[in-house]
């Protein structure tokens, strides 16, 4: 899939280009694949109609009860930090609107996205189908437990804050694989890179952040 191929020139295109130039490249995002994908994907179609005018602002936007779409910079930062290669099997925990999953697919990932809200799952599935984005399988369930049926994964991205790294996610990761996940309290987390090794894991701090909470058996109650 390649979102944007069928998109006509519009005011959204200019807003998207400005976002890439100022919010992403201007703040240090260097991966050209990430910049191109975010310059193509119509973010305005992933937010409620009443908030479309703010789709390209440098902030998170509410998309439902207790749910947000992350600010563009954070999306780009996490995507770049994932160090994903084409053909990687990727698990996304916290599918939300489907925006992050769409980006991972555009970068060549075979994506499994788990979201606890059935309404979000259905709308994300429909949205990606309308945009002709393939390579993403959406599932409704407890993302803190991963998705063992499709494991192992080369990369795992968690888009909600957890009190700790869920053991199930580590178990479902290949040796040498990476997890990008916010970990900490409800009010403040640190985005960390978890690398799985033969004798355990390495956790590397990346960026202070604040996400909605990861609800589930191995997340928050």
For the largest beta-sheet, the strand count, sense and barrel status come to: 7 strands, mixed
| CATH topology descriptor of the domain at 63-209 | Rossmann fold
List the strand order in the largest sheet: 5-4-3-6-7-8-9
- The CATH architecture of the domain at 63-209 comes to 3-Layer(aba) Sandwich
Write the H/E string, N to C.
HHEEHEHEHEEHEEE
Radius of gyration: 16 Å
Polypeptide structure, described:
The protein is an alpha/beta fold and 221 residues long. It has a domain at 63-209: Vaccinia Virus protein VP39 (Rossmann fold, 3-Layer(aba) Sandwich), CATH 3.40.50. The protein contains 6 helices and 9 strands, in the order ααββαβαβαββαβββ. The chain has helices spanning 11-24, 32-40, 72-81, 99-106, 118-130, 167-171, and strands spanning 61-64, 67-69, 89-93, 110-115, 136-140, 153-158, 173-184, 189-197, 200-209. The strands form 2 sheets. A 7-stranded mixed β-sheet has the order 5-4-3-6-7-8-9. A two-stranded antiparallel ribbon has the order 1-2. The protein is globular. 43% of the residues are buried. Mean pLDDT is 94; it is low at 4-8.
Give a summary of the structure in a few sentences:
The protein has 221 residues and is α/β, with parallel strands linked by helices.
What are the defining features of this structure?
7-stranded mixed sheet, two-stranded antiparallel sheet, 221 residues, alpha/beta, single chain, 27% helix, Rossmann fold
């Amino acid at each position: 899939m390649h979102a944007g191929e069928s998109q006509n020139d519009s005011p959204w295109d200019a807003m998207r280009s400005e976002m890439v130039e100022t919010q992403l490249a201007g703040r240090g995002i260097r991966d050209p694949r990430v910049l191109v994908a975010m310059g193509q994907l119509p973010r305005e179609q992933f937010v409620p109609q009443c908030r479309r005018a703010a789709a390209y602002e440098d902030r998170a936007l509410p998309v439902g009860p207790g749910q947000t779409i992350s600010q563009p910079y954070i999306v780009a930062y996490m995507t770049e930090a994932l160090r994903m290669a084409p053909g990687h099997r990727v698990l996304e925990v916290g599918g939300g609107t489907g925006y992050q999953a769409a980006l991972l697919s555009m970068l060549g990932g075979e994506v499994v996205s788990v979201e606890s809200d059935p309404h979000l799952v259905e709308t994300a599935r429909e949205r990606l189908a309308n945009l002709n984005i393939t390579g993403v399988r959406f599932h409704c369930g407890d993302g803190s437990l991963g998705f063992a049926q499709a494991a192992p994964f080369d990369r795992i991205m968690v888009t909600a804050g957890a009190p700790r790294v869920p053991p199930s996610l580590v178990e479902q990761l290949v040796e040498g694989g990476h997890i990008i996940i916010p970990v900490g309290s409800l009010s403040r987390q640190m985005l960390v890179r978890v690398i799985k090794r033969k004798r355990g894991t390495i956790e590397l701090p990346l960026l202070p952040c604040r996400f909605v909470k990861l609800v589930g058996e191995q997340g928050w109650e």
